[in-house]
Design a protein that fits this description.
Number of strands of chain A: 15
CATH topology of the largest domain in chain A: D-Maltodextrin-Binding Protein, domain 2
CATH class of the largest domain in chain A: Alpha Beta
Shape of chain A: globular
CATH superfamily of the largest domain in chain A: Periplasmic binding protein-like II
CATH architecture of the largest domain in chain A: 3-Layer(aba) Sandwich
Helix content of chain A: 25-40%
CATH class of the largest domain in chain B: Mainly Alpha
Radius of gyration of chain A: 25 Å
Distance between the termini of chain B: 14 Å
CATH topology of the largest domain in chain B: MetI-like fold
Strand content of chain A: 15-25%
Strand order of the largest sheet of chain B: 1-2
Number of helices of chain B: 15
Order of helices and strands of chain A: HHEHEEHEHEHHEEHEHEHEHEEEEEHHH
Number of helices of chain A: 14
Number of strands of chain B: 4
Oligomer: heterodimer
Distance between the termini of chain A: 95 Å
Shape of chain B: globular
Number of domains of chain B: 2
Structural class of chain A: alpha/beta
Mean pLDDT of chain A: 80
Helix content of chain B: over 70%
Structural class of chain B: mainly alpha
Strand content of chain B: under 5%
Chain lengths: 406, 377
């Protein structure tokens, strides 16, 4: 009998413990569902593959207001639309612009005791965010947060739709992840006469290696060597020409059939269906970075934002041109010529009303110029897992806007 | 179990007749107003189910009627309504199971067709999935062989069982027979807390600590081994095994053990020759439950394995961990489309059949053990 009562007490305490462990489980679940972030940029080919040549009437209505009315320093709504790949950059820029944060904010603009925004040392102004960029192009500062000199909005559709919308004057800026010549099947000449191409960033995948590989003196591979590694033709670093490092290669690929995987096969291996022979496949940039940092002899490709001192991008020699990991080199892995990269465009229409014969009004110029600063490149491009422009490209892009500077 | 033996006794026809008789009795015993209510409920629910299958936007109407009728019946004729409601719940559980089975089988059909192989001039659908070993969803020739994943699942399960079964049964024996009451009261809930740790935590520790360590120690290329996935999954299954086995052992009647001790045996002899055999059905059920958990474990395997479906070389090489059936689905569902997606469903079908076989097997073992050994569980 005493045994029975003991069992009962056992039940009670066990239930308590089960409840506790259930709570622990719930907490764990809550933690789990917090993942996901950060991968948005990697699967570049999102939903922008389509090249519908026509903007539908509904889209025209939705974004038509305030479009193309940009004579002089109009302060009407600046509209943009297009590719889902460019959207994160464009939309984050627009959100920052519309909030017109004061320099005392510290997190979104300016600096305070808790920190300062990236690239602040180049700006150092006491104006609000949108005020600062707008006044460079002749707009009156509002000096009022949440009230920029002119508001901006970004719509989401496809690259082709965005290009068509800007050509039809439905929006001020057309976002596109492919060149307009390909999206609308135009000649180079027609494109140059109709629109101005503003490149704000790049989508791409640098090749990275673990730091023991760098320590072994390998800081450059040829395109052919990378292809051989990812197609399983070599298994040890020492099998590559001119490399003396006896270590098996740990080849890391991305989820089979994902946008990143397809882009890599197409651009590096020559065909979207090209065979690959890798040791492991991972779905997310974070996992790839973790694997590279905790394994020897590892090689992978992934978004630039996840590189660190143990996950190091290397130079690649494509047919005699060496693309260096440094932003300031003559040819860099940030270039559009680097085969794993593609430009992210924001097109503006060449109109008679625009001064200086240029294709861009002051509103577009003020907004676009924001992306061409260290602040804009880090916050809007790099933090969205895209590749920032190298120094020389920023200079060239700024050149296109310099006529409009007040 | 009970209904099966009953129908065995009287035959299927007799059982059907008795069921009809029961329904008739129910109709006779129930007052007409209540009968109308429950009939309306049943018809409305049936209509709602048909509407659901047809994806009709009007499904809400019969369902609302059902809710109203159930609410009214609950207030006015609680007894019959409760009977019908509980029956409905049971039926819907079975129905959901049935719909899931039908769905995964239908979804897997295209890839089973694609993977047809010809044997002696006869085309057998799905056979190539099991006689070839190539999985490649992108480059030519596109093949969706399940062999690498079945191999992976088998290795992980065997290793996990080798970890969980001896440890679990030993711990259960200690807790139930040897440990003093205070130790048992403290340790048993502790073991159950172990079961409450989410699998991703085990997977994360495996991924960041165990896997790199194993990669260094065994001089492997990169990380991800069946061995350590098996060990981790075995540890995860351990609390289930301990808990269920301990329950089985401690429910062996005290009189049996006392009788044995009175014959002059030692404690250890009583344990091995009386307690364990008497509780054998429960203990083996515990181990099979653990095995079931090992087969179905997804998160830890997905995080720790390499995600490249291929056989290890040689086949018993557990130091390279490629992919299991569950991790294949978990890793690829987001990116897959077309045949690749169907292949994931095919992996689901294989998992389903495996778990079904194990579940029936454990029931059978339990039934046999109870018959031959007669332990009370």
């Amino acid at each position: 009998m005493s045994d029975d009562s003991e069992r009962v007490s056992d039940r009670v305490s066990r239930r308590k413990f089960l409840m506790t462990s259930g709570l622990v489980g719930a907490a764990g679940l809550a933690g789990c569902s917090g993942q996901s972030g950060g991968d948005g940029g990697s699967s570049g080919d999102g939903g922008d593959g389509g090249s519908d040549d026509t903007a539908t009437p509904t889209e025209a209505e939705a974004s038509g207001d305030g479009g193309s009315g940009n004579g002089g320093s109009s302060t009407s709504l600046l509209t943009a639309e297009g590719s889902s790949t460019v959207y994160p950059i464009s939309n984050k820029g627009s959100s920052y612009w519309n909030s017109n944060a004061p320099p005392s904010d510290g997190e979104y603009w300016g600096s305070n005791s808790e920190g300062s925004v990236p690239g602040w040392s180049e700006i150092e102004t006491d104006m609000l965010l949108a005020d600062y960029f707008a006044q460079q192009f002749g707009f009156e500062p509002t000096e009022q947060r949440s009230s920029p000199p002119f508001p901006t909005t970004v719509g989401l559709s496809h690259s082709g739709t965005g290009c068509q919308a800007v050509v039809d004057g439905l929006v001020d800026i057309g976002n596109s992840s492919g060149p307009i010549t390909a999206e609308l099947d135009w000649s180079e000449e027609k494109a140059n006469n109709t629109v101005v191409d503003h490149v704000v960033g790049r989508d791409g995948q640098p090749v990275v290696v673990s730091n023991d590989v760098i320590d072994a003196g390998i800081d450059q591979l040829t395109g052919e060597q990378v292809r051989a590694i990812f197609q399983g033709e070599v298994g040890n670093w020492s099998e590559l020409d001119g490399i003396d490092y006896d270590q098996e290669i740990f080849v890391i690929g991305r989820a089979e059939g994902s946008g990143t995987d397809t882009a890599f096969r197409l651009n590096m291996l020559g065909d979207a269906d090209a065979p690959m022979e890798v040791d492991t496949r991972q779905g997310q940039n974070q996992q790839v970075a973790q694997l590279v940092s905790q394994n020897e002899g590892a090689i992978a490709y992934m978004a630039l934002a996840f590189t660190s001192e143990s996950v190091i991008p290397i130079a690649i020699d494509f047919e005699g041109t060496v693309y260096e990991p440094s932003k300031d080199a003559e040819n860099t892995i940030f270039d559009s010529a680097y085969p794993l990269n593609r430009d992210l465009h924001m097109y503006t229409l060449i109109e008679e009303g625009n001064p200086g014969g240029g294709g861009t009004g002051p509103r577009e110029a003020a907004f676009l110029n924001m992306f061409l600063t260290t602040f804009g490149q880090v916050v809007f491009v790099e933090q969205n897992n895209y590749i920032p422009l190298p120094t020389k490209d920023i200079q060239a892009e700024k050149e296109k806007l310099s006529d409009l500077m007040a | 179990m009970a209904s099966v033996t009953e129908s065995e006794g009287t035959g299927l026809g007799g059982a059907t007749r008795r069921q009809i008789q029961r329904v008739r009795d129910f109709a006779d015993d129930t007052e007409p107003a209540a009968l109308v209510t429950v009939t309306v409920m049943a018809i409305a629910l049936l209509a709602a189910f048909v509407g659901f299958l047809l994806v009709s936007s009007l499904t809400i109407v019969p369902f609302a009627v059902f809710l109203l009728a159930a609410g009214y019946g609950w207030l006015r004729h609680q007894g019959p309504t409760a009977q019908v409601l509980t029956l409905t719940m049971t039926v819907s559980t079975l129905l959901i199971l049935g719909l899931i089975i039908v769905f995964i089988f239908i979804e897997a059909v295209p890839v089973i067709r694609y993977e047809s192989a010809t044997v002696f001039g006869v085309s057998v659908p799905g056979l190539r999935m099991f006689i070839e070993t190539r999985w490649d969803a992108v480059s030519d020739p596109v093949r969706y062989s399940m062999v690498p994943m079945i191999h992976g699942t088998l290795l992980v399960t065997v290793i996990a069982t080798a970890v969980a079964a001896p440890l679990g049964v030993a711990a259960a024996l200690f807790l139930s027979e040897i440990a003093p009451a205070t130790v048992r009261e403290l340790v048993k809930p502790g073991v159950e807390i172990l079961a409450g740790i989410p699998s991703i935590v085990y997977g994360f520790i495996g991924f960041t600590v165990l896997a790199p360590w194993a990669s260094d120690q065994f001089d492997l290329t990169g990380q991800g081994t069946y061995l350590f996935v098996g060990v981790v999954v075995g540890l995860m299954a351990l609390p289930t095994v301990v808990s269920v086995a301990e329950d089985a052992l401690s429910s062996v009647p005290e009189s049996m053990k006392s009788g044995s001790l009175a014959m002059g045996t030692t404690d250890w002899q009583t344990m091995t020759s009386i307690t364990l055999p008497a509780a054998f059905s429960g203990v083996s059920a515990a181990v099979l439950l653990g095995v079931g958990r090992a087969i179905g474990e997804t998160m830890a395997a997905t995080v720790m394995l390499r995600g490249v479906p291929r056989l290890t070389d040689p086949l018993v090489n557990v130091f390279y961990g490629q992919e299991t059936l569950t991790s294949l689905i978990a890793r690829n569902y987001g990116e897959a489309d077309g045949l690749q997606m169907d292949a994931l469903f095919a992996a689901g079908v294989i998992l389903f059949i495996t778990v079904l076989v194990i579940s029936i097997g454990s029931q059978y073992i339990e039934w046999r053990m109870r018959r031959t050994l007669g332990g009370e569980v």
